[in-house]
Design a protein that fits this description.
With 305 residues, this protein is an alpha/beta fold. Helix content is 27%, strand content 31%. It has eight helices and 17 strands. Strands 3, 5, 6, 8, 9, 16 and 17 form a seven-stranded mixed beta sheet that branches. The protein has a six-stranded parallel beta sheet with strand order 12-11-10-13-14-15, sandwiched between helices. The structure holds NADP nicotinamide-adenine-dinucleotide phosphate (NAP).
């Protein structure tokens, strides 16, 4: 089968077409992958930056998000062959990822049915970014009346976090560069936009003199952001800024479980949220996409035939 792999320590990611198709174990299903995405995590994994934290089992097939059809069932399963499914691999090692024609899914991985009316291409970019946005906002318990600063609002997680904070009734202040990125976050529901390349603290203070009640920390330095919290405010970080750094901070490790995945799919189906895709790559273009990776407006999608 085709896949994008790292073949040894220090190797660049490469497309190859000679890997064996995996077989599902007793508690797994085999998914024929039709869509995936490029997450910040994948870029780090491809660059070898997860060494030390995770075991690289070569050849490492990269990729975490998937959407496709159930191709085979290893044992008993609530799914049937042909069911459209999507989700996120959640393994403690790097080895059998989703940038491949087939992947086995089970154990701690998140998997859910793709509802009618949601394209596999959309479901394939939804799982990790969406679950991270949901878990972050749930940890912050955002309510009407809150002012939520989303730092890193332009990325895959940020684009969904802005929408969910707005849905929760909050006033959203989003970071973005001037120009198209500012239009992008306004379009998603940000009431105010601050340019993080300028005096971020001054701009936020001008909008919220007593501070903001909640901060979604997806990018940038956490300490000056935490200094913008109002009394009793809270910050949730996906990039490791936690209670050791600030008493009002919590560090998030996303868990894309069935509850999150079903909620995301329902919200997309009902049109309550959308997943902006900046660019769509074919599987064999992914190695190039990784070398060109920079900040995105929304998600980078991967398509398989
Ligand atoms: N803990 C977890 O479970 C978990 C799960 C998923 C993701 N993550 C992490 O969460 C972060 C966000 O994920 P993502 O997929 O949304 O990443 P992404 O798509 O790369 O988005 C990051 C965004 O932040 C912007 N940005 C860069 N520097 C900034 C700054 N100083 N202030 C404000 N915005 C800035 C970038 O835009 P420009 O540079 O173009 O302006 C980009 O749009 C990543 O570091 C990812 O690894 C963690």
């Amino acid at each position: 089968m085709q896949a994008v792999t790292l073949d040894r320590d220090g190797a660049a990611p490469a497309a190859r077409d000679d890997l064996a198709r995996p077989s599902p174990g007793p508690d797994e299903v085999l998914v024929r992958v039709r869509a995936s995405s490029i997450n910040g995590f994948d870029v780090k994994a491809a660059a070898g930056a997860m060494r030390g934290a995770m075991d690289y089992r070569y050849p490492v097939v990269l990729g975490k998000d998937f959407a496709g059809e159930v191709e085979a069932i290893g044992g008993t399963s609530e799914f049937r062959v042909g069911d459209p499914v999507f989700g996120v691999l959640m393994r403690s090692y790097l080895g059998d990822g989703t940038w491949a024609e087939y992947v086995t899914v089970g154990g701690a991985d998140g998997i859910a049915r793709v509802p009618d009316g949601v394209e596999l291409a959309t479901a394939g970019v939804l799982g990790l970014a969406g679950a991270t946005a949901l878990d972050t906002l749930d940890a912050l318990d955002v309510r009407p009346g809150d002012t939520v600063l989303v730092a890193g609002a332009t990325g895959g997680v940020g684009a969904l976090a802005v929408q969910y904070a707005r849905l929760a009734g909050a006033r959203v202040v989003a970071t973005a560069r001037p120009g198209p990125a500012t239009d992008f976050v306004r379009d998603l529901g940000a009431a105010e936009v601050v340019d993080y390349t300028g005096d971020l603290t001054g701009q936020v203070r001008a909008l919220a003199p007593d501070g903001v009640s909640r901060i979604v920390h997806l990018a940038g330095d956490g300490a000056p952001l935490a200094g913008l919290l109002a009394a009793g405010g809270r910050l949730a970080s996906t990039i490791g800024f936690g209670p050791d750094q600030h008493p009002a901070a919590v560090s998030i490790l996303a868990k894309p479980d069935r509850t999150d995945l079903d909620r995301l799919a329902d919200d997309v189906q009902a049109g309550r949220v959308r997943v902006p895709v900046e660019h769509r790559y074919e599987l064999d273009e992914v190695p190039r996409a990784l070398t060109e990776f920079r900040g995105t407006l929304g998600k980078l999608a991967v398509s398989l035939p």
